[in-house]
Amino acid sequence: MSAVTDPKKRVAILISGRGSNMEALIAAAKAPDYPAQIVGVFSNKPDAGGLRTAATHGIATAWRWHKDYPSRTGFELALSDVLRLWRPDIIALAGFMRILTPEFTEKWKGRMINIHPSLLPKHRGLHTHEAVLAAGDKEHGCTVHFVSPGVDEGPTILQARVPVIPGDTPDSLAERILVEEHRIYPEALALVARGAATYTG
Ligand code: GRF
After folding, report:
1. Which numbered atom of ligand 1 lies nearest the CA of 178?
2. Cα angle vertex 98, ends 93, 100, to 5°?
3. How far is Cα 5 from Cα 140, in angstroms, rounded to an integer?
4. Active site residue 116
5. Which residues contact 186 (CB under 8 A, 6 or more apart)?
6. Ligand 1 centre distance from Cα of residue 20 (Å)
7. Residues within 6 Å of ligand 1 by CB
8. CA dihedral of residues 150, 78, 111, 52 (deg, nearest 10)
């Protein structure tokens, strides 16, 4: 009797910049037993470095500059047109710097994940490394979570912790956290793709 193999889940990655987390997902997805495949990389910025990187891996890319659209909804309609072509099961936000409307997040509820460089619910928003130092925190980290309408909210899938060391700067923290981001994001995506992590727990 032969085992029935589940088809790999189709994943679209949304970026705005260099895309190092995107690259970690692409690398993980090359393993034959990884439960997801990357079907496209989308950016809201035409000059995002990650678009070139994705193309060198032979992955479809697209961009729509958000400034070309009069509203968030208009931009998201253009994004949805691209997604209709790629037919993703899951969206992975990887340094995607646009706030998404509640309508969009609701549509993708349980199927859209994000990585944030803090131990959520601590330090939502930007400049998390500065915030950790200003607060005198003893530890820092990163979180992969399902996306909900609130910015940097939604159920946690995985977290990684690192110590804050005397003499740390925002740059040294960012570097230490990024290593952990690249480790846990592929793990978290695999959990979601396998159905082992769901929005409700
Ligand atoms: C990462 O620190 C991620 O956690 C945050 O933005 C940064 C993006 O880096 N949301 P990269 O584009 O993945 O290299």
Report:
1. 2
2. 80
3. 39
4. yes
5. 24, 25, 27, 28, 29, 34
6. 7
7. 15, 17-22, 94-95, 115-117, 181
8. -100
Which pLDDT does position 200 carry in this prediction?
A: 85
Which domains, from first to last, does the chain contain?
9-194 (3.40.50.170)
Of residues 57, 66, 116, 127, which has the active-site annotation? 116
The mean pLDDT value for 73-98 works out to 98
Query: What DSSP string describes 68-126?
Result: GSSSHHHHHHHHHHHHHHH--SEEEESS---PPPHHHHHHTTTTEEEEESS-TTSS-SS
**Cα–Cα distance measured from residue 40 to residue 10, given in angstroms and rounded to the nearest whole number:** 9
Give pLDDT tens digits for 63-82. Answer: 999 999 999 999 999 999 99
Task: State the pTM of this model.
Answer: 0.96
- Which atom of ligand 1 lies nearest, measured to the CA of 21? 13
Note the pLDDT tens digit of each residue in 147-160.
999 888 999 999 99
Distance CA 166, CA 172 (A): 11
- CA distances to 40, 100, 113, 174 from 73, rounded to whole Å, are 21, 9, 20, 32
Q: Cβ of 128: how many Cβ atoms within 10 Å?
A: 24
Q: Locate all alpha helices (DSSP H) within the chain, ordered by sequence.
A: 20-29, 49-56, 72-86, 102-107, 128-135, 170-193
Average pLDDT over residues 83-103: 97
